[in-house]
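Handout, section B. The chain below has 144 residues.
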Amino acid sequence: MKLLLSEVLQKAHNAKTKAEKINILRKNKSDALVSVFIINFDESVVPVVPLGEDVPYRKNEAPAGTEHSKLEHEARILFHFFKGGSKLTPIKRETMFIQLLEGLHQDEAEVVIKAVNKNLHKRYKVTQACVKEAFPEIVWGGRS
């Protein structure tokens, strides 16, 4: 069974060396994982949803692997929440954002919130240098 993105990040966080972190990231590479790192580290990705850690959503407390969607599948809609992504009204965009968070496992919702706020690396000890080495194909900048 494929790990949740929060589980991949936790495994990388727990790794003792940079080489181990890179190996874990590469073995679990997905479009969603790469997107989360781009959202977090690329300064040209500008959120158009309200920033802050206190997002007013109901946490989905269902156990991992049960009644919730996975960020792996929902990552395709993340573009709506950033400058240049779509022309939704602010109310529609914020409603979609809350619905996304409420549908995800609470740990994955936390990943989205922290990435949007550009502080995912403060929760999970995975640096931009580590991400650049794991995924050298990522082109940084020029996204907004």
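Note. Residues 90-103 form the longest helix (14 residues). Compare this with the example in section A.
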